[in-house]
Every structure is written in structure tokens, then in C-alpha cells.
Amino acid sequence: MTQLHFDTDIPFLWTALFHWLSDLLFITLLPKRMKRRWVTLLSLLLLPVQIALYSVIAPLRGMAFNLGMTLFAGWTLVPFLFFSDISLKNKVYYCARAFIIGASAVAFAWHIYWFYASRFSFLYAPYWEIAVMLLLGGGIIMLCWGLERRHRKEMRGMRVSIGNVLAAVGFALFVYILSSLSYTLLDTPFTAKSQGQIFLTRTIVYLGGMSFLFAFHLHLCDLYARTERDTLQHILDQQYENYRVRQETNELIHQKYHDLKHQIALLRSEVGSGQKLEYLDRMEQDIRAFEAQNKTGNEVLDTILTGKSLDCQQHGITMTVVADGHALDFMDVMDLSALFGNAIDNAIEAACQVREPEQRLVLLSVSRQKGFLSIRLKNRYEATPVNGDTLPQTTKRDKRYHGYGLKSMQATVEKYGGSFSINGADGWFDLAILIPLQAD
Question: What pLDDT, on the 0 to 100 scale, is given for residue 209?
Fold first, then answer.
């Protein structure tokens, strides 16, 4: 075993590379503002800029280096600003976490390489350095990516508060200061003396900081998941309660119409003939039309459609329904009321925004197709086109429940092993649902 003495500072190339990779770790998981190929291309162009920037900072010493690193930390926010379709608060939050992950990966990998290369001469070679750095540092990045990916759903929907952002940034700054004390001229109880102690302190501080920030993130994800669950349950209960109210109202209306038919029959026998008889005929036809409408074969759907038809009439919306209600018999009452209640409510809300009354259209179809239950709901709307699983922006004044109707529907569809997609183009909003039908 031979002791070697070589430049123990981490080469600037590795620091820039791993900070770049840690940014990409989150950018690949977060919603994007542009297509994936453009993100890849522009990310590759940012790498040499990041390397050049850090090559200027690396030779600095003391406070000059720390000020340079502050600028470098700010630069790592640039990819989030360009590529990620999330709020600025979320961008700053994930940037702070990415900075600590990148620093942890490069510090740990270089510490291990320095420890063994200073003892075994054959490791003091460029190819060994590359192999060890990519294996260990890249391993940490991939491990973090795998852990973060398990909470991708929360990452894409969670809105981080300003307090949580300040907490993450403040802790990241604290970790950096604590890890850098040994590189300053200050003599403190936390300042290491030997090179080995300096590396060990820096590695432990960064790994501990990375672990703490991840635990903090898991806590936020858990709070978000519980809030989502409670809100979706509230919406489910609300739609079911609406269904129960509609059901009682419809029963009362049908009873009154039934009584009215008998009264018309009695009046017909007394009137005889003439204009009054024609008037009674028209009334009877209207009653028959009411009884015939929204008879799909599923009582729950019939109740929902009857109530929504009245809402459409109030807003001048034409709703056309072609539905095989028997295809829905396998679904729970609460699931049906939540699914169709939210879907038609959203369609009516969007159609109300259309300026031309004749263009206020809602089309619903429910059918069996090759072993699947197919539900299609189309409505006219005036908004920015959407596609895939992207949730459109709400038009409600209260933004707190943005997207929860669609999320509730998506959760219901997933409960039955189905798929859910939304598309919007040419003034039509199209909701498509496919649920596999099981044999009786």
C-alpha cells in the first residue's frame, strides 16, 4: 500500500456534472412545459454552460468561493424555470433539494475515491477515477430518482407553501455552510483539520442533509395525499347526497304526473270535443314525453340525468343522451353518482361559457364495446385546448377545489380497472372512459 498525495479538491467537472444530473432527476419527473425531445436537447446544451461557470468558481478560495457557489446554486434553478410546468415556489423547493442531492453524490463519490486512491497507486488513474465517480455518484442519483419516482403523483399535484419553501432553502443553506466550515479560515468546534476529517465531515453533513430533506418531502407528500383523499371523499359524499335529493324530487314529480294523467282522463270524459280537447291532448303528449325521457335502464343514471336535464334547460343547453343503462349495473351507487354527477356538472359548467346559445351542446353515450364499458361525454367549451391526463384550468372563483371533480372521476374509474382520458380541440371537450366488463 502506497500513500499518494494529489490534488484533493473535487475536480470542477464532476461537481458541475452531478449538479446537472440532480436537476434532471426532478425535471424528468415533474410536469414539463415542452416536449421531451426539446427538454433533452436543451438540457444537453446547458451542461457545457454549467461546466464553464463552475470552472470559473472552482479556483476561488474563502468567501469568494462561497459567494460563487451561491451564484452557482441560483444558476441550477434555470433548468426548472425553462422546463418545469409548476409554480415558482415548487421550482425553488425542488431546486434546493436537487442542489443538496448533487452535492451529496459528488462528495460521497470523491471521498471514497480519494480514500482508496491515496492508498493504492493503481487506482490513481483517469479511468479508475471515471469508473468510481460514475458508479458511486451515479448510483446515488439513480437511487434518489427511484425513491422520488415512487411519489411522482404527489410531486405533480402538490402545491408547496411559501413556509415549506423557506424551510427547504434555509436547511439547504445550513447544510452547505456546515459542510464548508473546514474550507474557511475560521477556527470553530466544527472545523476539521486533516484532509480525511474534512472529507468525512463534508460527506456526512451532505448525506444527512439529503436524508432530512427527503424525510421532510415524504411528510409533505403524506399531508397532500391525506388532503386529496379527504377532499375526494367529500366530493363523493356530496354527489351521492345530490343524487338522493334528486331521487326524492323525481319520485314526487312522477307521483304528481301520475295523478295528473288521471285528472286529464277525467276531464276528457267531461269535455267531449273541440279546442279544449286538443289542449288536453297536448298536455297528455307532454306527460308521455317526460315519462319517456332519460329512461336508460339504470335507475341511478335516470335520476341523475333527469336532474341535469332541468339544469340544462335553465341554461339553454341541449343535452343528448344515448345510454345503455344496464351496462352500468355492476357499479356501486355512490360511484355512479360521483362519476356521472361530476362529469355532467363539468360539461354544463363549460357549456354555459359558450357565447352562442345554439352551440351549447352536451352529448353523452354509454355502451358496451368488445368487453368494455364505454362512456363518452362531449361538450362545447371556450378554453385552452387540453389533452391526455392534463387537467384543464377551473373557471370557478374558488380555486381550492381545482380539478378535484376530474380527480374523483379518475379515482372511480381506476377503482374498476379502467382508463380515463380527456382531450380538447376545435371547441369540443371530450371525456373518454373505458372500463373492462366482467362476465356474470
Answer: 94
Mean pLDDT of the chain: 81
Examine residue 249 and state whether it is found in any structural domain, yes or no: no
| pLDDT mean over 173-179 | 88
Residue 158 lies in a domain: yes
Span between the terminal Cα atoms of the chain, in Å: 74
Q: What is the pTM of this model?
A: 0.68
Angstrom distance (rounded) from CA 397 to CA 213: 35
pLDDT at 275: 59
Q: Do 40 and 147 belong to one domain?
A: yes
What is the spatial distance between Cα 406 and Cα 389, in angstroms, rounded to a whole number? Answer: 10
Residue 220 lies in a domain: yes
Ordered DSSP codes for 18-46? HHHHHHHHHHTTS-BSS-HHHHHHHHHHH
Q: Are 68 and 56 in contact (CB under 8 A)?
A: yes
Strands 361-369 and 318-323: parallel
User: Which domain, by its residues, includes 220?
Assistant: 12-231
**Mean pLDDT of the 26-51 span:** 89
For 20, the grid coordinates are 446537472
| Mean pLDDT (whole number) for 1-6 | 41
Residues 219 and 333 in one domain: no
Contact criterion met (CB below 8 Å) for 86 and 158: no
> What CATH number is attached to the domain comprising 321?
3.30.565.10
For range 201-226, the mean pLDDT: 92
Q: How far apart are CA 386 and CA 429, in angstroms?
A: 8
The residue-averaged pLDDT of 139-158 equals 91
